[in-house]
User: What shape does this take?
Amino acid sequence: MDQAPGSPQQPPNSSGLPGCYRHPDRETGISCTRCERPICPECMVSASVGFQCPTCVREGSGTGHAPTANQPRTLAGGTIAADPRLVTKILIGINVAVFILVTVDDSLIRDLFLLGGTPPQYLPEGVAHGEWYRLFTSMFLHQEIWHIAFNMLGLWWLGAPLESALGRARYLALYLLSGLAGSALTYLIAAPTQPSLGASGAVFGLMGATAVLMRRLNYDMRPVLALLALNMLFTFTWSGIAWEAHVGGLIAGTVIAYGLVHAPRERRALVQWGTCGLVLLLTIVIVVVRTLQLT
Assistant: This one.
């Protein structure tokens, strides 16, 4: 139940940070600028100065007083959604649906995975021969049950909080551009001999974005840095892993997230979508340059 404005903050958790007044299990370093209660990313509403809690926003816009925020916004300026995890659920559903399809008909893998190009003795195929869609379709393609299980768990754990904090459109742009950047770096370095598939590039992008968001909110960085270090260790020690996709997605996700959460309020849209556009442009340049080299 919501507390009245001005009520005491929640007691601090083990890390010393208080828990969100609506979600006590979520530690946070951000407080509402009106009532000073601690609020987590899902409860942050962008106001003219700082962030407010949903209760203060409702009171400011529904009691006859002048609203302090014209429209509820997420930390990054996105619209507050009724289901702040909808895009994450849809992305998981698409990945699972594609996995079921290729399980039923494994010949689809040959048509969808990231393939730079085949030697001359085979029929021309791959990105270098005009099949650019493989850069995108490979992001939703998995062949082993353990592969999709790890990626979907990571997508849910990392994606749901990010979607709540960024808003649907910005979160979806982050996910797709991170995945494409991972595909592009794989194409640049590993093509044409190494095929690649999986959502790992996009998930690593979410991991980099999580680190940026936690830094922005003054959270304890040790858990996410430990998770990142562990995953990078697996990336470079396990055989059969396309490290290029992981690194490309991580770099893109970090850059995009920095632009999303640190954009100045007066030029927020320009900086945010400009950052996304620059990452996309660089991705396209990498693909075009590598294609020219291979052809």
In short: The mean pLDDT is 84.
